[in-house]
Amino acid sequence: MEYVIEMLNIRKEFPGIVANDNINLQVKKGEIHALLGENGAGKSTLMNVLFGLYQPERGEIRVRGEKVHINSPNKANDLGIGMVHQHFMLVDTFTVAENIILGKEPKKFGRIDRKRAVQEVQDISDQYGLQIHPGAKVADISVGMQQRAEILKTLYRGADILIFDEPTAVLTPHEIKELMQIMKNLVNEGKSIILITHKLKEIMEVCDRVTIIRKGKGIKTLDVRDTNKDELASLMVGREVSFKTEKKAAQPGAEVLAIDGITVKDTRGVETVRDLSLSVKAGEIVGIAGVDGNGQSELIEAITGLRNTDSGTITLNGKQIQNLTPRKVTESGIGHIPQDRHKHGLVLDFPIGENIVLQSYYKKPYAAFGVLHKGEMYKKARCLISEYDVRTPDEYTHARALSGGNQQKAIIGREVDRNPDLLIAAQPTRGLDVGAIEFVHKKLIEQRDAGKAVLLLSFELEEIMNLSDRIAVIFEGHIIATVDPQDTTEQELGLLMAGSMQKEAGKANG
Fold first, then answer.
1. Residue 266: exposed, middle, or buried by beta-carbon count in 10 A (0-12, 13-18, 19+)?
2. Count of C-beta atoms within a 10 Å radius of residue 325
């Protein structure tokens, strides 16, 4: 059997942790091979070893049967290995073509041959069905298109083995479908793909084989056609996982959040929320369903004090809170799990212990007379790290060093522990594995059952349908319908979200 990639007994250690414990991975030519594991299982570390970003303590790598030493990404590129990172490595102010040729510019008479560059980029785009415009500025294109630019960049450098690191974490359902087709096009053209993911649906849909990693150890490699979602989930987490969220019927109480006719502008000064009204009661989860870019982010920012409103009112427990500072909003009884955990959720270069008290560090017992009591902070952090199963060497480890899922658990612990009247959960399970998703869903339902109001924003239709008691559909800044998840389907929701179907919105604030 000829493998294009063999990683044999790879061991990679970091201070206090063995990230890869003698893992084996063998990838066949022309296959899509999934690397599946929980957050922090060691998937990205293993691929960073293959791409030359990390050097292993032990083990060997073979590419097309030849033993190699990959000591840098340049060496990986020379061997035909390209990596599409989770966080894109693009220059916003450059065009797509300029980003792609950067460092490998075609020259003519000693100068960059822009015409040839654009043509080459266009040719690759056409060959693999990427449908991306080489002259578009990166800042002006969608996240899905930026990802295509990253794929193009690896192809332009001659990669025939492509590593995709959690490629669908930031994509809309439609973009995910398109990416799956692009991946199929790539293998049809003779490429081999390693897909780092924890989305079981995607593995079942496009992958040929799957290698499961748990807590740094290789567990098993399976043919996808011989397995199913339940088996993969239990191999990944080490126990059975429930995909259906168990919950009893909601018992809505008094209105907690009342939004009446608000208008909000984005950073360009364009109205993205227009005359929007919405209501969330105690003891219910209201889900906001919509295609990304229809005003959801600006709506959440307006409620949490991160963005001002131009008109209308936002009322929490009968008191107006629009245009207050984020701290005032937080103190009025709002908890916020932000959709961008790095930008609005954590200070990455602070210890995780300090991040856990970011919302309350200035209050007793963490501070008195302007002096911080770090002992109390870390004591609290230890409790929440244990309660929320935040996997970290200790509470002094910088937030940056934790996996995405563990960063998310820390944020959820911090926000839920403050016991807010309204919990806003924006993309709360983005980038999380099935075990962590199950945990987060349970916590949101616990909040609802404790009589709290929960506002859920998610681009995962399954999540919206599973968790919500009511679903408000947002399109072009308006709530165009409010539906009961029991009385709708994913297809109907998709049509509403696309604006291609009107449904009597009734009182959108229910």
1. middle
2. 10
Q: What is the pTM of this model?
A: 0.72
For the record, the structure tokens of 387 come out as 């309660």
Contact of 487 with 465, CB cutoff 8 Å: no
- Domain spanning 254-498: which superfamily? P-loop containing nucleotide triphosphate hydrolases (3.40.50.300)
- Residue 89: count other Cβ atoms within 10 Å of its Cβ: 12
Instruction: Return the SS3 of 70.
Output: coil
Q: Measured in Å, how far apart are the chain's first and last C-alpha atoms? A: 61
Closest CA to 74 of 102, 51, 108: 51
Q: Do domains 3-237 and 254-498 have the same CATH topology?
A: yes
Place of tokens 């290698």: 211
Task: Provide the strand spans (E) within 53-116.
Answer: 58-63, 66-68, 81-84, 107-108, 111-112
Q: Which residues, in sequence order, are bridge partners of residue 108?
A: 111
Give yes or no for a contact between 289 and 492, defined as CB atoms under 8 angstroms apart. no
Closest CA relative to residue 414, chosen from 341, 343, 360: 360
Q: Which CATH class is domain 3-237?
A: alpha beta
Beta strand pairing call for 192-197 and 255-265: unpaired
Distances (CA, A) of 190 to 81, 111, 124, 205, 353: 14, 33, 14, 19, 48
**CA atoms of 158 and 201, how far apart (whole Å):** 30
- Among residues 236, 81, 291, 87, the alpha carbon closest in space to that of 169 is found at 87
Integer Cα distance of 188 and 128 in angstroms: 9
Find tokens 């450098």 and name the residue: 157
Q: What is the pLDDT of residues 156-215, one digit of tens each?
A: 888 999 999 888 876 767 788 888 999 999 999 899 999 998 888 889 999 999 999 998
CB 46 within 8 A of CB 9: no
Question: By the 8 A CB rule, do 288 and 297 touch?
Answer: no
Sign of CA dihedral 408, 411, 417, 418: negative
Question: In DSSP terms, which residues pair with 68 in a beta bridge?
Answer: 61
DSSP run (H or E) holding 418: none
Segments making up each domain of the chain, as ranges: 3-237, 254-498
Which structure tokens are listed for 334?
């709002």
Enumerate the H helices of 128-267 as residue ranges: 143-156, 173-188, 200-206, 229-237
- pLDDT, tens only, 73-103: 999 999 999 998 877 788 888 989 988 888 7
**d(Cα 124, Cα 379) in Å, to the nearest integer?**
55
**How many other CB atoms are there within 10 angstroms of residue 313's CB atom?**
14
